[in-house]
Amino acid sequence: MTRPDPRDFARALPEEGRLVLTTHRHPDPDGLGAMVGIEYLLKTRFGIAADFVLEGRIRRAENLAMREILGIDALPKGGVDPAQYAGVVVVDAQPGFSHTHPPGALPVLAVIDHHRGSEEAAPEDVPFFWVAPDYGATSTMVWDLLRAFDLEPDERTATALFCGVRYDTNNLLREAGPRDEEAFRELERRANRRMVAEIDQPPLPRHWFVQMHEAIETCRLSGGLVLTLLGEVRSPETVAEVADWFMRLDGAEWSLAGGACDGVYQVSLRTDLPGADAYPTLRAILDGEGACGGHGRMAGGQLRLDGADLEEVRERLRGRARSVLAVGDAPEEPLIPPVPSTPRNR
Ligand SMILES: [Mn+2]
Question: Which residues neighbour 213 within 8 Å (Cβ) at sequence distance 6 or greater?
């Protein structure tokens, strides 16, 4: 378990000037939580102000609620004037990832992330590069960094970090190590319970049910594989949500979901097979197409459509998923058996 040296982090920071904090496109609670934690550390310990850059729509109800309830503001798209900033800190993502685009023209000063994916060594031009896949959440890493500085998070910061740890580790059930366990317990005590509950159970818009209805109709089962390759979706977050949702199906061992958004076919893979690793599995399913990253039981990837036929892309993924996950000749059956049409008005 790598632990951060606070002096290394301190050395990476500028003498003066504001910083930009960013994460992967379509930020999730772990990315948002880690950003709030780093913002707090910069402000309280170093007197450095920071602005958030959030790329991609946030549509998942829980993520929207987290932004709203915690008052997480971000610069408008394209609102970064490089002259105003000394550098960028990237959390829960790495600059080399296809879904991560730190504002150009600014040096990346620090990267804090728990994803695997960039197998090469730390880039020399990033002064603080801490990538630790043995952490279940980047928010746990930020908690450890705060502790390394003997900093006690305030209630808002603790609530944000707690949400990050609990969603990324699914309440410590997914890829959580002893560090995540400690962070979860310590942050839970400091977090605002009412806010946590409001973020956990937000009102769901009607289109959420429409999307899930479509997912139920699209879902196909083959042995332990649950395959839900949708057409156009409102946001890539939908794809992750669908993959998570169908993982709950009794008997599901792998859940692969996909959906097209902004010219990209987004895929999410989940597994709960003991010892299974979602990332290499998704890499094999993508078979050199697009890019992917992940850790432990979850992985995500993107495939540029570039005008390709959506039906063909879905068919290719379906075929490769079946062969990589060795479902063999297991028949494909719909999740919901077709409803026999009942004659009406008789
Ligand atoms: Mn994460």
Answer: none
DSSP state letter for 116: B
The answer to whether residues 103 and 211 belong to one domain is no
26 CA from centroid of ligand 1 (Å) = 12
Ligand 1 mean position to 237 CA, how many Å?
14
Task: Give the distance (Å) from ligand 1 centre to CA of residue 251.
Answer: 26
For ligand 1, the distance from its centroid to the CA atom of residue 86, given in whole angstroms, is 25
Same domain, 178 and 85: yes
Quick check: 286 pLDDT over 90?
Answer: yes
186 and 257 part of one domain = no
Are the CB atoms for 259 and 238 separated by under 8 Å? yes
What confidence category does residue 162 fall into, taking pLDDT thresholds of 50, 70 and 90?
very high
| CA of residue 138 to ligand 1 center, whole Å | 5
How much distance in Å is there from the Cα of 172 to the middle of ligand 1? 13
Q: Which of 200, 218, 249 is the last residue of a domain?
A: 200
pLDDT at 327: 82
Cα–ligand 1 centroid distance for 120 (angstroms): 20
Q: For residue 282, give every residue at least 6 positions away whose Cβ sits within 8 Å of its Cβ, in sequence order, or none.
A: 267, 269, 292, 294, 299, 300, 301
| DSSP-based three-state secondary structure for 264 | strand
Query: Is residue 114 in a domain?
Result: yes
Structure tokens given for 204 = 């769901």
Q: Is residue 47 part of a domain?
A: yes
**Helix segments in the chain, DSSP class H:** 6-12, 29-46, 61-69, 138-148, 155-168, 178-190, 193-200, 206-218, 236-247, 278-286, 310-324
- How many angstroms is it from 289 CA to the middle of ligand 1? 23
| Distances in whole angstroms, Cα of residue 248 to Cα of each of 25, 93, 305 | 26, 27, 29
Are 194 and 228 in the same domain?
no
CA of 167 to the centre of ligand 1 (A): 9
- Mean pLDDT value of segment 236-265: 94
Distance 240 CA to ligand 1 centre (A): 13
What pTM was estimated for this model as a whole?
Answer: 0.79
How far, in Å, CA of 278 to CA of 257, rounded?
13
Going from the Cα of 217 to the center of ligand 1, the distance in angstroms, rounded, reads: 30
d(C-alpha 165, C-alpha 298), whole Å = 15
